[in-house]
Amino acid sequence: MAKQKTEFRCSECGWTSVKWAGRCGECQAWGSLEESAGTTKEVKPLRLNESQAARPITEIETQGTRTSPTMVGEFDRVLGGGLVPGAAILISGEPGVGKSTLLLEVASRVAKSGKKVLYVSAEESASQVKLRAERTGAISPNLYLAAETDLATVLGQIEAVNPELFIVDSVQTVASSDIDGVAGMPAQVREVAANLIRTAKQNSIPMLLVGHVTKDGSIAGPRTLEHLVDVVCHFEGDRQTSLRFIRTLKNRFGPTDEVGCFELTGEGILEVSDPSSLFVSGSENPVSGTCITVTVEGRRALIAEVQALVVHSTSPQPRRVTNGVDPSRVAMLLAVLERRAGMSLSDKDVYVSTVGGVKITEPAADLAIAIAIASALKDKPVNFKVAAFGEISLAGEIRGVSNLSQRTQEAIRLGHPEVIGEKGQLISQALRRAIS
């Protein structure tokens, strides 16, 4: 007989506990555990037929799972080559960043290649989507539009059209009548995503889902949503600029550190295949407080310019303002410069920023940041031919970085043949070499 038991389930992520707690142990949400009655019973093994039996991995066929390009090169780079049949791809981003514009461009290019594409809009009407498609030149007879918010109707549209790619914008606005609650609730999002993913995998159709984000930048809904999908991409960009970046946070079919660059214009979204020139100021006259570095995003080397400004502080606590770089990393570099290079920075306001809105997260940019700060402090410009990359230790030594040859080739290609950052060199020696 089934044994009755009481358990507590999180309404946000589905995590269960045998006793009540004020905070979920999985998603850390407060007050989300609700009492539910569960049953435990013995599950008997099922007799398998020949098609269900496990086979050696060497006998598994993979011909039907090859990637197919979307004709959007930067998007294919992020996905690891293109779309895999049956793959579920979730794209998140802030409102107005350009998610729908990007996916409409992907849909139109795939449709123009001869494949049938279904675009389901749960936020706009079909006429509104067509207006945007006319403005961006995304009209194709193989692109089918549907404005639906009911899950059963969406599944019916997929069955009727039988597309080779379908897009749902967005998963938080689609609801199922079989589940209590309004669209966007954790239970609704979980049910909608599970049914759409099941349909995609059963029919070997790649699927693109749009996901909303909360005010702190995380994907709205239960964390189960990110576990269910195969790829999680985040579309980001500064509202003040037209540059947009798409990064992979999870990818079962490729790398998770690639980045794709786009430019959002009035005519649609354009690929930026060589974005290095966008992240350099291009000033003809040498200015103090600037230094060129090369960062590696996945397999791509990107050149970036770090700028610094050092002024005398009038407050007892000097300001440390950063934009595009890690503030804790900058604080550590200021301590190293003061202790190992003899620079007085404790009574100075220090501002460090990158050009073009690029974000640098890797420690290889330590040397460029240190050189830019030293150049601003001494008011001496760095030679334009210099490019610096290297991690700085607390002992004041420069550590080696990965992809050294790739970084060097990219710096030379863009006119910076003098590279600084030899492994084992002291920070004081590097500063003297850069600022002469």
Automatic annotation (TrEMBL):
The keyword Ubl conjugation does not apply. GO terms for biological process: recombinational repair. Residues 64-213 form the RecA family profile domain. It comes from the Bacteria. Residues 349-436 are annotated as: Lon-protease-like. A motif (RadA KNRFG motif) lies at residues 250-254. GO terms for cellular component: cytosol. GO terms for molecular function: ATP binding; ATP-dependent DNA damage sensor activity; damaged DNA binding; hydrolase activity; zinc ion binding. Keywords: ATP-binding, DNA damage, DNA repair, DNA-binding, Hydrolase, Metal-binding, Nucleotide-binding, Stress response, Zinc, Zinc-finger. The keyword Metal-binding applies. Pfam families: AAA_25, ChlI, Zn_ribbon_LapB. InterPro entries: AAA+_ATPase, DNA_repair_RadA, P-loop_NTPase, RecA_ATP-bd, Ribosomal_Su5_D2-typ_SF, Ribsml_uS5_D2-typ_fold_subgr, Rubredoxin_2. ATP binds at G93, E94, P95, G96, V97, G98, K99, S100. SMART domains: AAA. The middle region has homology to RecA with ATPase motifs including the RadA KNRFG motif, while the C-terminus is homologous to Lon protease. HAMAP family: RadA_bact. Belongs to the RecA family. RadA subfamily. DNA-dependent ATPase involved in processing of recombination intermediates, plays a role in repairing DNA breaks. Stimulates the branch migration of RecA-mediated strand transfer reactions, allowing the 3' invading strand to extend heteroduplex DNA faster. Binds ssDNA in the presence of ADP but not other nucleotides, has ATPase activity that is stimulated by ssDNA and various branched DNA structures, but inhibited by SSB. Does not have RecA's homology-searching function. Plays a role in repairing double-strand DNA breaks, probably involving stabilizing or processing branched DNA or blocked replication forks. This is DNA repair protein RadA.
